[in-house]
Design a protein that fits this description.
Blueprint (H helix, E strand, L loop, with lengths): L5 H30 L6 H29 L4
Subcellular location: Membrane
Main location: membrane
GO cellular component, one term: TIM23 mitochondrial import inner membrane translocase complex
Length: 74
């Protein structure tokens, strides 16, 4: 079985990081919107911003970690 290419590993890392970050961001954004009593439809905007921001950061870090790990052979 051929080993995965480095690009495939980094892409998978970014995708998994984005999914995990999005889930965490949605939960945290909902909690913060309720806690700070964000009015009306601004709650949806606030939750969306938190979700996308978290997904981007988690995806970036997991992708970078996968890229660093990609060069190592065991």
């Amino acid at each position: 079985m051929a080993r995965d290419s480095c690009l495939a590993r980094v892409t998978a890392g970014v995708a998994i990081g984005g999914a995990v970050g999005g889930a965490v961001g949605a939960v945290y954004g909902t909690y913060e919107a309720i806690r700070y009593k964000v009015p009306g439809l601004l709650k949806i905007r606030y939750i969306g911003q938190t979700t996308l921001g978290s997904a981007a950061i988690f995806g970036l870090f997991l992708g970078a970690g996968s890229l660093i790990h990609c060069g190592k052979s065991y």
